[in-house]
Amino acid sequence: MKHFYEIIIVGGGHAGSEAAYAAARGGSKVALVTKKKDHIGVMSCNPAIGGLGKGHLVREIDALGGLMGIAADKSGIQFRLLNKSKGPAVQGPRTQSDRLIYMQEVQNVLNRQKGIDIIEAEATDIIIKKGKIEGIELDNHIKIEALSVVLTTGTFLNGVIRVGKESLQAGRIDDFSCLKLARKIRGFGLDVGRLKTGTPARLSGNSIDWDKVEMQEADENPSLFSFMHKKPFQRQVSCGITYTNEETHDVIRKNLRKSAVFDGTITSNGPRYCPSIEDKIVRFAEKDKHQVFLEPEGLNDDTVYPNGISTSLPKDIQDTYIRSIKGLERVKILKYGYAVEYDFINPKCLKSSLELKNISGLFLAGQINGTTGYEEAAAQGLVAGINASMYCKNEHPLVLDRSEAYIGVLVDDLVTKGVIEPYRMFTSRAEFRLSLRSDNADRRLTKKAWDLKIISNERKKAFDRKTKLIQELIFTAKNKSYHTGGLAKLGINLKKDGKKRSFFDLLSFSEINKLQLTTLWPEYFDYDREIRQNVESDSKYSFYIERQAYEVQKMKTNIGIKIPQSFDYSKIEGLSSEIKTKLKDLSPQHIDQASRVDGMTPSALMLIISKIKLLKTIA
Amino acid sequence: MKDTIFALSTAPGVSALAVLRISGPNAFSALEKIIKGDFPAPRVATLKKIVWGGDVIDECIVLCFNSSSSFTGEQVVELQIHGSQAVIKKICAIFLEKDFVNLRPAEEGEFTRQAFYNGKLNLTQVEGLAELLSAETETQRKWSIDTYSGTLSKDINKWRDILTEILSDFEANIDFSDEDIEPINVSGKIDELMVLMKEKEDMYKRVRVIKNGIEIAIIGPPNVGKSTLLNRLGNRKLALTSEIAGTTRDIIEAKLEIKGIHVTFLDTAGLRETNDILESEGIALVKERINKVFSRVILINEEKDIDELGVAIKEKDMVFKSKVDKGNHTKYKGLSGKTGRGVSELINEIEKFLPNINRVSGIITDERQIKKVKETKGVLKILKKGLEKGEEIEILAEECRRGVRFLDELEGKIDTELVLGNIFRKFCIGK
Questions:
Q1: CA A309, A312, A315: angle at the middle one, nearest 5?
Q2: Selected residue of A434, A559, A573 to mutate for chain B interface (largest B Cβ count, 10 A)
């Protein structure tokens, strides 16, 4: 019997489930191939979603109709908006999630979605003919044909787990390692490398002395991820905070050589921003303590995730150093921490659609592209899923610009710069940070999702309602104006330059309080908090956003220049051979992309521009 | 595809030698066509006959450079021909013949433009080179060769490092606020950068003085010997001199280079009450002009001359007793234009007032460069004020990024990876 699907998704993690859901919403017939059906959507590492930059990604995923925001809201047990004291552009929603509920929610969403079949098997081979994907083969030797395949192998591709001197082939503890597939992929002539990551031990909450540690509460007014949700679904709980101390550090220092990272067994790069505890102690020797968050993994789960002490030290050393920490003196360790090494493919091999440049129809998403984090994986899964679906329909792929979404920044960074350590999103990566806020993700993206027909009518209606209110409020606020003299009587002292100020302008001054605003326009506060926040952020950053838009416009003249596909860099004298190779590998589509290549200099760029202009005059 | 260009690199006119330079992808094939025997090894001066149509045109030293080691980043050929108009004309004519390899005369500055496009020079270096080529004085030569060899680039890199550190502090406090990292402490760094940039700005003021040169007026009562002094300084007869007071009516100039700076001496009409309309107009002109000059040499016969001149003595003015060969009864130093006595003391005095540029760091010599420095300084001021006012950190970061962009425009570029790299080196991240 012949098996056929339009799209096969390999892997059921955060990238895989998002990809399957997106592709199916796009109307494609999808098979999700995963080794263990019950593990779809499992949180393998920390039980939290969102954060700085990451929270932005989740909002964007939600704005595009994805599932991560929904599942995070349904399972959220401690919502906290990070950077509350800073401006709205850099505030990131985050939540602790009940791991079990999160996983169930992901599975529910996929089960309810039309067009997804879940196949419980291991993909062992990829069938390619003439540079085009044809399908995959499973471990039971069944072949499934497909127009397009999305690979989301996570840490399973040639995954090796290490605890001290012990090592075993697995992508996750008590799990398997994708060896056959890894061998196959190594034969594709792609740039394959190794990365590592780690996870801490898991503790029994009942054995923690909670009285001895600080506690951190959830927010009083929680910020949810999905634009469709207003209130949390679960009871909110607190996290504990404790610290390592000199004794902890001594134990680790004395046993450094037993760590797989420090004895030379692991040579691949791990994330600098998520270092193991051994790393922290070596690199920041002067610090006498490090923060440890004690995060509950669920409402009905005794497991606690000690965030901040991931490790690959042997089990007995883990016992000793963990018990040296205040509050953990009598702690029971449920599972030990470990490091995991896995294969990734340098994402420079990808187009902006996340399709491989040299194998048409084969898309990659998640850790296989060198990223870390659930949110980064899900964002790519969404893009790959949508674009696999577009590919099947022979339509243009969805490519988001750096100026319109963090997802755009993520994909562009990956495909133009490549990866040398696991890539994580930060707000500082987004040069248009003041416009890419979590509060306006829907205003930036939902219209696009609607045009692609990947969101529900219900979501579209809610979105239209919201945008109408915002437009109405901005219009009215811009038409209410006041003399500085009159404002001074209310105690609002602004520069007396004879110019009138609109209500919209006044919203950008943080020193103007609610009472003063109420006096000026009482009905303002009839608008929902969400609507007001959107308008206030717009006002706050309007000056900078306009200036940025102007500068972008100025730059666009050269930056928009398209680079002809057959452009031959090797013939440009004066370019370093390193840059030549990079440009050749990357084949950037326009000058803007070329300008972001590592090591690119303005004069090299000028050279390329002048060459292209020259070609144009000749042609 | 790229053009091959040629030009005479030495000044036109008769001379012993002239250098013709060819640069571009056809440079070597052009040379091949006009010489016989082995092609010269790169960077080896080789004696060759230039032959065309069976005719020996000239015999000269030929130098070849591969594109990897040439100034322009292209193939370069230099012909050190005899400096005869006929030879130059003939070779240029050959280069432009229809069946010769495709060459065309270079436009102004085109060799440098090739070098810039080929990444051999950055923008400030190009500017330094332009400055070097137009340098007339020793000081200009010094600073332009420094800029050309990259001293200014070094300064800009240092500024960028400081600004990137400031930005890293902001970014760390935004992206890692849930980690226990140290609070922002950038005030000191902003001040440090302000000082560095202010130095450059001040230096630019002096640079402008040096570039434009200075004027020193010689003033004094009629017949005190101003024109005689000018002629002495100019080392030739620039101004008419006579026993008759009021001989000089126009302002006459003599140019001198002192300590590498152009100094123009102005000989002026003697200041006195007069009924001669022409002379009194001359005196009015002088009074106006001598208020604008850098400094003045006041020549006197007697001390009371100073009061009678009706000119207020300024800080940089120098008073000398003139005609010192005939004695000096004043408290001032004396000089004599006629014998040259005391003139070197005058030059010493002037040297003391001349602006100084030390060669320790790079020098801003150009309007475009100073504009970028000022714009960056403007950003620093905004940052400082914003910090005092408690402005939102993401807005400060935005301003800071703009500052970095200004420095980028001065030359070079920044990558966010650089900022993150800084953060990771400095802070312990990873809860």
A1: 90
A2: A573
Residue of higher predicted confidence among A615 and B296: B296
Q: Note the pLDDT of residue A342.
A: 95
Architecture of domain B214-353: 3-Layer(aba) Sandwich (3.40)
Judged by phi (left if over 0) then psi (alpha if -120 to 50, else beta), residue B342 lies in: left
CA–CA dist B158, B358 (Å, integer)? 18
Superfamily of domain B5-117: Probable tRNA modification gtpase trme; domain 1 (3.30.1360.120)
Topology at the third CATH level for domain B151-206+361-426: Four Helix Bundle (Hemerythrin (Met), subunit A) (1.20.120)
B70 interaction partners in chain A (CB closer than 8 Å):
none
pLDDT of B150-166, one tens digit each? Answer: 888 888 889 999 999 99
DSSP A178: B
Average pLDDT of chain A is: 91
Which residues lie closer than 8 Å to A614 by C-beta, 6 or more apart?
B1, B2
Whether A423 and A376 have beta carbons less than 8 Å apart is answered as yes
A394: pLDDT strictly greater than 90? yes
Query: Considering only CA atoms, which of A376, A555, A438, A431 is closest in space to residue A59?
Result: A438
Question: The tokens of A63 are what?
Answer: 């704005």
Query: Which residue from A603, A573, A568, A602 is spatially nearest to A583, judged by alpha carbons?
Result: A568
Over residues A8-38, the pLDDT tens digits come to: 999 999 999 999 999 999 999 999 999 999 9
Instruction: Look at residue A379 and give its three-state secondary structure.
Output: helix
Q: Domain check: are A222 and A267 in the same one?
A: yes
> Minimal Cα–Cα distance from B91 to chain A, Å?
27
Res. B429: pLDDT tops 50: no
**Residues with Cβ within 8 Å of residue A513, at least 6 apart in sequence:** none
- CA separation, residue B264 to residues A568, A608, B236, B296, B418 (Å): 56, 47, 15, 11, 50
Rg, C-alpha atoms of chain A: 26
DSSP 3-state helix, strand, coil percentages of chain B (rounded to 5)?
45, 15, 40
CB contact under 8 A, B419 and A293: no
User: Does residue B417 have a pLDDT over 60?
Assistant: no
Say yes or no: ipTM exceeds 0.90. Answer: no
Number of C-beta neighbours around residue A418 at 10 A? 22
Q: Is A494 on the interface with B (CB under 8 A)?
A: no
Question: Using an 8 Å Cβ cutoff, are A81 and A218 in contact?
Answer: no
Tokens of A579: 């840059």
Cross-strand pairs, B49: B59
Is residue A619 over pLDDT 60? no
Residue B286 C-alpha, separation from nearest chain A C-alpha, in angstroms: 46
